[in-house]
Amino acid sequence: MREIKSLAELKALVGTQVASSDWISISQERVNTFADATGDHQWIHIDVERAKKESPFGGPIAHGFLTLSLLPMLMADALHLSYVKMGVNYGLNKVRFPAPVPVGSRLRAHLTLLQVDDIKDGAQMTWEVSIEREGSDKPVCVAESIARCY
Questions:
Q1: 24: buried, middle or exposed (CB in 10 Å: 19+, 13-18, 0-12)?
Q2: Do 95 and 70 touch, CB atoms closer than 8 A?
Q3: What are phi and psi of 120, to 5 degrees?
Q4: What residues are paired with 126 via a beta bridge?
Q5: DSSP 138
Q6: Distance of CA 35 to the CA centre of its chain
């Protein structure tokens, strides 16, 4: 985990890859729990036997939005802004899912700081987050994530 101790230190990192998270595993249980939480029970995610037979991916895959929902956890694992009292998600500019996430995959995030803007009582950061699947040459998710810290 990379620790950033000041806003000035953060601003000096604009345009660079700042940190990477540890690997996490995507289990069928995690996919099923996400399906239950969101109501998205499409068979390519939760019906293991059917997905093995009929899916072009050869088995069940994680929801794209499950992968996206991991951003806060992966970012917190990769980076700590020790000078910040509170942070909030502000939104996303762009999200793409260039490759599937087969159940059983391991993922990690790479964080590149694109921009830091001063706001009242804090700063707004724009991050490019690229989520990598172990053994794949394409990212499984690329997103511009905007966060505010105070």
A1: middle
A2: no
A3: -60, 125
A4: 115, 146
A5: S
A6: 18
Residues 5-46 pLDDT 10s: 999 999 999 999 999 999 999 999 999 999 999 999 999 999
Q: Which two tokens stand for residue 77?
A: 């694992």
Tokens describing residue 30: 């995690």
Alpha helices in 39-135 (DSSP H): 43-46, 48-54, 64-69, 71-78
Q: What is the pLDDT of residues 57-88, one digit of tens each?
A: 999 999 999 999 999 999 999 999 999 999 99
The set of long-range contacts for 136-140, using a CB threshold of 8 Å and a minimum separation of 24, is: 136/99, 138/98, 138/99, 139/98, 139/99, 140/67, 140/97, 140/98, 140/99, 140/100, 140/101, 140/105, 140/107
Kindly report the pTM of this predicted structure.
0.94
Amino acid at 95: V
Question: Which of 42, 63, 64 is closest to 54 using CA atoms?
Answer: 42
SS (H, E, C) 34-65: HHHHHCCCCHHHHCHHHHHHHCCCCCCECCHH
How does DSSP classify residue 83? T
Which two tokens mark 102?
């087969």
